[in-house]
Every structure is written in structure tokens, then in C-alpha cells.
Amino acid sequence: MIMASTLLALTLCSAGIQGKAINSVIGPFIAYAERFYMCETDNQPLLWRWFLRATHFNPLRPKELQRLTGNVTATGGLLDDSDWGPYIAYVERFYMCEPDNRPLPWRWVLRATHFNPFKPKELQRVTGNLTFSSGLLDDSDWVKVIVDTRSNNQWKENAYVLKFNDHACRAIKVNIPGFYEQFLKKREVKGACLFRPGVYETNDAPLNWTFPNVPALPYGQYRFRLMIGKAKNLYACFVADARAVPKTD
Predict the structure, then answer these.
(1) How far apart are CA 126 and CA 114, in angstroms?
(2) Which first-to-last residue range defines the signal peptide (predicted)?
(3) Is residue 174 within 8 Å of 212, Cβ to Cβ?
(4) Between 20 and 30 A from 195 (CA), which of 105, 170, 210, 236?
(5) Cα(76)–Cα(48) distance, integer angstroms
(6) How many CB atoms lie within 10 A of CB 215?
(7) What is the DSSP letter of 141?
């Protein structure tokens, strides 16, 4: 049962950056809410609802916290740590999301060992390759991540959307360090985040699917789409079907 489905319109104000699109940089930020509302399916009232309003963000006093007024009302259901929290992520399938079945210059062919629920701390082992036939992966590229969630036997698209207008290489290195470590780090030249066309392989390598900037998630099934390009050119559209399960001590 979907007990609540809410949207929070957020605007991000990057610390120390003025006059530049927020998603063109990576760094510390201040978040503030502009509007709270519901996204109830077919206008059907759900068991949990919120009615909130916030004071306006003052860009001249960015450290001044917003003040909230309102309520969250739950008429049924139960929210506890069984729904959300620290997690272990594992991948079930890797594939491509090339538009109109048009081959893109960057592709991956990967497979992972099955996740063992009786040994949850045992890392998946990944075999396969990334192939870049043209273009560079560096910090002049953009990257977009779209995460879909699975509910009631169907995909709920665009549950989470992140876009960086540049610094793609750094974004991958910082946010998906296990993947970067296995496929790209060994090909670094003097620590530079720059990778040329070629084949980047790994064979039966343990891969730690940790996301340092996302320490907690709702448990469940996810479809993770990673798109990379430069200007109007799309280089890659990678997809991984994954799950997040409770993290054990």
C-alpha cells in the first residue's frame, strides 16, 4: 500500500557561488523549500498527508534557517525503520538505454554475481567492460542520473533526478567510488580525472556499491539510469536494475 506520496520543491543555493547555475558545480550547499504539496495518484487521498508552509529564504542571510508552520497527518499505516534506513545495494542487471536503439559511443557489457542474503556483507563480483569509442570522460562533460522506483508491479519514473552541467568525472568519482575504483582509477594519469577512448575491463572484481552522499534510502527495487554527454551530444545511457535492503551490523 502506498501510504504517502509527497513532493518537496527544493532550491539549492551553493555556498560561495553566485550567478551560476547550481547544478553546474559540486560542493557544499544550502537547501531551502519553496513549496510543499502532495502528488496523490488520480487525486485519491492517501493515508499520510502534509500541510506545510515555510518562510522565504533570504539570500542576504543564507545562514538564517527557514521557519515552518503546519502539520503532517497520518490516518493509518506505520512508519518505522523497516521502511527506510542504512542499506546494502546490489545490482541484478546491467543494460543500455540507447534512444531509438541507436548505438552510443560509450557502452557497457557487465554481469554481477548473485547477491547472497545469507552473507549480506559479501561483495558482488563484477566481470565485463566499459568501451569508449570516441570522446573523453572528464570534467567538461555533464552527467544526469534518473532513479525510478518499483511499486505495485510498475515503475514510478523520475523518483530522483540529479543533473550536473559539468564535472561529470568528479561526480562519478565522489558519488560512486566503488565503481570508479574498479573501472577507472587504475587508468588515471597523475591523478587526473580524464579518460580517453578505450576498453576499461574488470574480471571477477569485488565491487562495493556504496553511495557516500546517500547514506539512507527507502528499501526496495530501483532502476538507475546514468547519462553522460557534452553539450548536446549524448555519449552514454547506462542502466542498472538494483535493490536496496536493510544494512546489518
Answers:
(1) 10
(2) 1-19
(3) yes
(4) 210
(5) 7
(6) 11
(7) S
